[in-house]
Amino acid sequence: MIRTAEVIAIGxxxxxxxxxxxNSAWLGQRLAALGVGVYRHTTVGDxxxxxxxxxxxxxxxxxxxxxxxxxGPTSDDLTNDCLAGVAxxxxxxxPEARRHVDEMFASFGREPTPSNYKQxxxxxxxxxxxxPRGTAMGAMLEVNGAxxxxxxxxxxxxxxxxxxxxxPLVRSRTEGSIVSRTLWFTGIGESALAEEVQDLLDAPDPxxxxxxxxxxxxxxxxxxxxxxxxxxxxxxxxxxxxxxxxGKYYFGEDDETLESAVGKTLAERGETLALAESCTGGLIAxxxxxxxxxxxxxxxxLVTYSDDAKRRLLGVPEETLREHGAVxxxxxxxxxxxxxxxxxxxxxxxxxxxxxxxxxxxxKPVGTVWxxxxxxxxxxxxxVDLSAWSRSREAIRERSANLAFDLLRRHLMxxx
Length: 416
Prior knowledge:
Molybdenum Cofactor Biosythetic Enzyme, Chain A; Maf protein; alpha/beta; 15 helices; Alpha-Beta Plaits; elongated
C-alpha cells in the first residue's frame, strides 16, 4: 500500500532562484486527495552524488518517491542515471522510448541529434511512463520497497503523465482520502484570528492551520477519511464553527480571491465599478480583469500617477492638490468622485499613497496610503499606515490593493 510520499525536485536553477518549483506543490495537492501523506519536498541541484543521496534517503522512509526534472538530453540531466545507481541496475535502451523520440521529432519536422537519444536509456526493469506532450518519457521502478516515478520538469508534461499513468496506479494502492478546505479572511491579523480558534488549532483531526500574507489570512482544514465523503463530513462542522466566530472577516474559500469576491457581489447586484489608481499603478485593475467575465461589472480604470493626470483626467481641483497634496483625504475623495462622474459607474474606488522607497516625509512617511470610495450616496476616504512594510515597494503596493478590495467589499456589504 502507498501511504507516504516524497517529492524530489531536481535542478540547480531552482536553488539559484532562477526558477520557482510549482511542481511539488501541485503533486502534494493531488497526492493528498488520493489519501497519500506527503511528508517532505526536497530540492537538489544537478549533482549526481547529491541526487543519489536524496533518492536513497527518500526510499528508506517513503512508499512513493516522485522526482521532477533531470530527464533532458544534456549532460546535466542525471535523474535516471542516478536512479539506476541507487537501484543497482544498469542503464539499457528501450526501443519504445526510441520510437517515441523519433515520432516526436518527426512531428516537429526535425531530426533528433545523437544527444536526444540519451532519453531512450533507463534503468533495467523500468516501466515507462508515456509522455505524449514531450520527448522525455518517465520511469517507474521499485527500489528497496519504494516505488520511484520520474517526471520531466516541464509542468504541463509532468501533470499529464501523472494524471494518465501514476494517479490511477496510486489510487489502486491507497486506502482513504485526505481532503482540505481553505477559508479566507481579511481585516484581521493572523495572531488575532488564531486566538479566536485556538481550541481548533490544537485538535488532531481535522487539523486547522493558519497562514497569513499581505493583509489576508487563510485557515486550512484537513481531514482523513475512508473516502472523500467521510473526510468532508469531518470538515464541514469545523468550518461552520469557524464561520460562526469569524464570519464578518470571511470573504471566500479555496480558490476564491478578494477581487473575485468583490466581482461576484457586483455581478449579483448588477452594479459597476470604476478605478482611479496612483501608487498601485494599475495593479487593482489588472487583478479585477484577471477574472473572466469582469467586463460585466468593471467599466474602466485610470492610472493617474502625476498631479497633472489627476487634474486632467479626474478633475481633482488644483487647490486640493496644492493645499493637501496628492496623498491626502481630500485628493482620495476627489479621485473617486471624478472617476465615478466620468465613467458613470455605480461605484468608484481610488488609491493614492507613497510606495517608496523614497518620497516620504515626516508627516507622510513611506507607507502612507489613502483610499477613496464614491457612490450615489456620496464619498468617503480611509487612511492606512503601511510603514511597517516601507522596505518593500512591492509589498506596499500589493497590500494596498488587498486593502482596497476589502474596503469595497465591506462597503458593498454595508449598503446591501
